[in-house]
Automatic annotation (TrEMBL):
GO cellular component: plasma membrane
Entry keyword annotation includes Oxidoreductase: no
Record's keyword terms, sorted: Cell membrane, Membrane, Transmembrane, Transmembrane helix
A Pfam family recorded for this sequence: FtsX
Signal peptide: none
Name recorded for this polypeptide: ABC transporter, permease protein, probable SP0913, putative
Transmembrane segments: 27-49, 83-105, 117-138
Lineage: Bacteria, Bacillati, Bacillota, Clostridia, Eubacteriales
InterPro entries cross-referenced by the UniProt entry: ABC-4_Integral_Memb_Prot (IPR052536), ABC3_permease_C (IPR003838)
Membrane-related topology note: Multi-pass membrane protein
Source species: Clostridium perfringens (strain SM101 / Type A)
Subcellular location: Cell membrane
């Protein structure tokens, strides 16, 4: 019990503490997911712009490859490999970090008798991978069409 300056007793019930904890947890989860989405969109946009600007810078290299007899299929495979590496490495690092973070957060939440967030985390991760894959596909097709149009 806690006496305030007027001599009243402030008491907290288990339900009130549980409700306050739920409210704080929801706020933190919302902010975390919101920031994650913002960082995902901004980082993929930067990656896409960097790759597309590199496409126009590499036109001479692809023309040289074409002159020595490399087929369009091989050039497309080279483009796919390059864009996959640029998009794949950050994705792998993020997934490893997320798996570790989810295990830590689940351990923390079990102290407060909270449910496991594994399923909701997987759904969120799946949505983010789909968005990331959309950026990857758009970047790949843009890079490929830039090179193809320059080689004509």
């Amino acid at each position: 019990m806690d006496l305030d300056k007027y001599g009243f007793v402030n008491g907290y019930t288990r339900e009130r503490i549980y409700e306050d904890n739920n409210g704080m947890t929801n706020i933190v989860l919302f902010i975390g997911i919101y920031l994650g989405i913002i960082f995902l969109i901004s980082s993929t946009a930067v990656l896409a712009l960097q790759q597309l600007s590199e496409a126009s810078d590499s036109i001479d290299r692809y023309k040289s490859l074409r002159r020595i007899g490399v087929s369009q299929k091989m050039i497309n495979k080279s483009i796919f490999t390059q864009v996959s590496i640029y998009f794949g490495l950050p994705l792998v690092v993020a997934l490893v970090h997320s798996v570790v973070a989810i295990k830590v957060v689940n351990g923390f939440l079990t102290m407060f008798n909270r449910p496991d967030i594994g399923v909701s985390s997987l759904v969120t991760a799946l949505i983010m991978v789909i968005v990331y894959g959309g950026y990857f596909y758009t970047t790949y097709t843009g890079y490929k069409s830039t090179v193809k149009n320059a080689l004509k």
